[in-house]
Protein: Ribose-phosphate pyrophosphokinase 1
Organism: Carassius auratus
Amino acid sequence: MPNIKIFSGSSHPDLSQKIADRLGLELGKVVTKKFSNQETCVEIGESVRGEDVYIVQSGCGEINDNLMELLIMINACKIASASRVTAVIPCFPYARQDKKDKVGSRAPISAKLVANMLSVAGADHIITMDLHASQIQGFFDIPVDNLYAEPAVLKWIKENINEWKNCTIVSPDAGGAKRCGGVTSIADRLNVDFALIHKERKKANEVDRMVLVGDVKDRVAILVDDMADTCGTICHAADKLVSAGATKVYAILTHGIFSGPAISRINSANFEAVVVTNTIPQEDKIKHCNKIQVIDISMILAEAIRRTHNGESVSYLFSHVPL
């Protein structure tokens, strides 16, 4: 593949390396350091003039530092005459702040701000995965490819859950039921039933009351969501499903953020397994929780990069896992 360079930010070097290996490329040389006042300094260590540049940086860990590093890397490549700069952002930062919650509230729409910052920095194209809200694509005036983990999730279910034909796919909230690549879509493609849990929140990150809509009695229940942060919702949901007669409960999440009390909650909850993709590094979490399993999605991102570089359609990846 001529005229292509892939650089890794510091948020998830393991995923960047897997993507580069898959494409048979070396990661580009980049040196990131911090000055003593905590300003980020990035030096691109090779020529990018006329190249098709891909910068892999996930919105995790020290989110604000990593976002700033991404913006600086995009700008550094752009003013070094790269022909096109694509930001590959497996987990999009600030995606939950995508709308004003209450009428007349003074809440920001931070996802739009991040979109503006990426455009102003010089990004020509964005590749991301399972956006929390599909309308975020409309916050950009540049092309956005929102890939889905769904094909990889279907493959995992069929290979790892023996009784998958007698399962119910459950959405832990009403929002996830209609999300693209979400619960109804997975239930349809497995040809199984689907249920949802209606929850009422008193305040953010705290759930007040849950109502199960659908039947899980004597079945395997598979909770599917796009992200889990403090895991209050999915752990509550697991208890609800067990009390409603589910034989086993799995959780499958695209972005396992697992902040705060998440790991201790998962350890004490009724899960057979909590399955996440590696859009966010999970090595440290796995050490403290043996229920966490990881689906590798590097091949989906690598194939999206290859197809974008060669000017091919990316929509094949919405329903297939590249071999």
